Each structure stands twice: as structure tokens, then as C-alpha cells.
TrEMBL record:
SUPFAM superfamilies: CNF1/YfiH-like putative cysteine hydrolases (SSF64438). Purine nucleoside enzyme that catalyzes the phosphorolysis of adenosine and inosine nucleosides, yielding D-ribose 1-phosphate and the respective free bases, adenine and hypoxanthine. Also catalyzes the phosphorolysis of S-methyl-5'-thioadenosine into adenine and S-methyl-5-thio-alpha-D-ribose 1-phosphate. Also has adenosine deaminase activity. InterPro entries: Cu_polyphenol_OxRdtase, Cu_polyphenol_OxRdtase_sf, Cytotoxic_necrot_fac-like_cat. It comes from Propionibacterium ruminifibrarum. It comes from the Bacteria. This is Multi-copper polyphenol oxidoreductase laccase.
Amino acid sequence: MFAFLSEPGADGVGVAFTDREGGASEGAFAALNLGRAGEDDPAALSANMTALRARLALAPISVVHQVHGTTVKTITRADLPGPDDWLGASGPSRRPLAEADALVTALPGAPLAIRVADCVPVLLADARAGVIGAAHAGRRGLLAGVLAATVRRMRELGATSIHAWVGPHICGDCYEVPPEMQAESCAIIPELGATTSWGTPSLDLGAGVHAVLERDGVGVEHHDPCTRTTPQLFSHRRDRGVTGRQIGLIWRAERGDRSDSRG
């Protein structure tokens, strides 16, 4: 169920990156798919999310309709979702998801998640200030500034000392791109430059994410096996576009609802 898990400890912040094991989905989406309802059986998706929430004892999880942009959605009490609202307009509530590529909140007990299958899930927290965030950093969003926008909004909510966790994504050895795309990307974030294991131009999204966050004064730790080469993870590129999604998930426990931290 988890590629990485750290449950809330003394600081109250929980962090998880899911894998594809332990769910109810079948075929190309087997098994713990947490992707879009238009692609997989909604009943299986609902069962997958129910199992995840039960394992972590979480309230309904906020997600957004990701569009590779820089919009940051702030979750207030008025935005808190119902159990199946994460399915969007295809779900039983027919409630469309907001278009954004990051979420932030200062609410305890309000989990945030980003869905990925090769892009970089980035989770952020200032535990002392009680502010958390989750960002979807694909190539386009990273170059456009989604991480800077997320950090800026967290600081507007009172964050001063932010720590980030970088989750599973396609690595620089595997993310082949045309030479022109590499040059254009590296002109914005030089640390993106890489070469595939077979000797062609590529982008190292993890290195780019790390560099951008570090320049913005954010501490970074990595829990990021390559999605393309890890069978236990979904990969859009490896599976030629027909695949599920894992999530990066962050939450802040209600006071008195904290356990020992473990990975």
C-alpha cells in the first residue's frame, strides 16, 4: 500500500506515498489505483480509497483536477470534501473538482493529496505553524513555477520553516526528451539536465525539484524510486498511457490523535 509512510509523531504531520499494491482495481489499473473515475471502475476506486483511509484513520481527502499549471487551492472548512468527492463529477456527488496543481491548508484533520504516475509528488509542511501543502510537479508545472507558488501561499498562511518530501517519479535515467526540450528546460532550471541510461538527452525532475525548493529556503528529503523501473508503482510512460495513479498524501493530526512516527 505504501512506497513510503511516516505516521504523525510529536509534530503531528503524517506523510505517505502510495504504491499499487493491495487494492481492488483490475487489469492495467491493478490494484490500488487512486486515479480518475473516467478510466477505472468507480466502485473499485471507492473501495481503494476507503481501504487507504481506514488504514490511516483519515477524514475524506482533498484532491484537485490537475492541469500542469501553477494554481494553488487553499482548503478551508467550506471546501472539506465528502468521502467520494475525490472522484469528481463522475462520482456519486457529481461535484466537479477545482482545477489546480497544488493544495495547502492550515486546518488539522484535513488530508491533502496529489495524484501521479511519473510526475513528481511534493509534500510540504511547517509543523510548528500548522501549515501543510501538496504539489504536482510535472515538467510543465515545475518550469512554470508551481513549487514557488505553493511555498509562497504556505508562507502567506504563516509558514516560516518549510520541509518537503519528494516522492516516486520517473528518474533522469529514464525520462528521455528531445534535445530542444532539454535545452529549453535547462535554460530555466539548469539542474534538470541529464542523460538516459541508453545515452540520449533526458530531464532529472527530482534534481530540478530539489534545486528549486532549496533556492526557496525549503529543506528537502527524497523517497523517490523511479516509477518506470519499479513494478510496484504506476508509470504513464512505461505503461504507454494506460495505467493507474498513486498519490502523495499529507495530513496534520488532530490534537490527541498522534502516533509514533515510522517509515
